[in-house]
Amino acid sequence: MKRIFILLSVILIxxxxxxxQVRWFKTSDPTVTISGVITDKDTGGAIRHAAVMAxxxxxxxxxxxxxxxYSIKVVPGxxxxxxxxxxxxxxxxxxxxxxxxxxxxxxxxxxxxxxxxSYIPKRFEFEGRFFNTLGITSVMDAAQTILGLEGRYNFRRxxxxxGLNFSYSLPFTMEPSEASPDTPIGEVMSFGYWAVxxxxxxxxxxxxxxxxxxxxxxxxxxxxxxxxSGFTQDTEDGYPYxxxxxxxKPIAIFSLRAGFEFNTHIKIFxxxxxxxxxxxxxxxGLTFVL
Length: 290
Known about the structure:
2 domains; 1 helix; 4-stranded mixed β-sheet; 9% helix; Porin; Immunoglobulin-like
């Protein structure tokens, strides 16, 4: 009886393990391999380093070898393949397959694309900012230095990205000696602000190395002012020195932006900021995108 019990226990445990293995196997995503050769439509020569992307998924992208050959694994079903290369017009090929398949592609030359390079944008981009005003603020005739951080999420199927921007304007401060008894009371001697904005960009040539863009931002922040409140007479040299008052108030901010990103790393941009305290600034900068 004891032997029968042990035998039944072994059979039961073995059955459970086999069932678990089958369940694990069935829950894994099956894949098929699509391979082929990418060639020049005019010459028939192989194209090296051509990009092949499946279903606009930047994480599922491969590049052709020196003989033009490529191989990519995809989930069976309806598949959209995107082929692109420097100096060639990109093309899409749609297939529906449940087994390994060969798909060859011939790309036509496009001289206008020679300066561009097809690339896969990063899903997340981060950039640090440090730049001076191109123009002047409307509050005081002075250039300002801006510090900032920005993070954006890139949509894979749309030429857009969205994100958050934090910026801080280092106050431009005039020296006390620059205020004279003729300086009007209330004259702004220092101005700065910080702001947090939700931003979005629309990207032209999104899948190329050179990517112009336009966008906008909206957010909130706080401005700070230092204004002349009066003058005091110095007892030693008899020279009047300015006294100041400080103030700050919440602001809403709206910004327009334009520029271009090169090689997914370097960005040159122009921004125009408008604040509800009637201040505004024109900013021009160069950043490095991570």
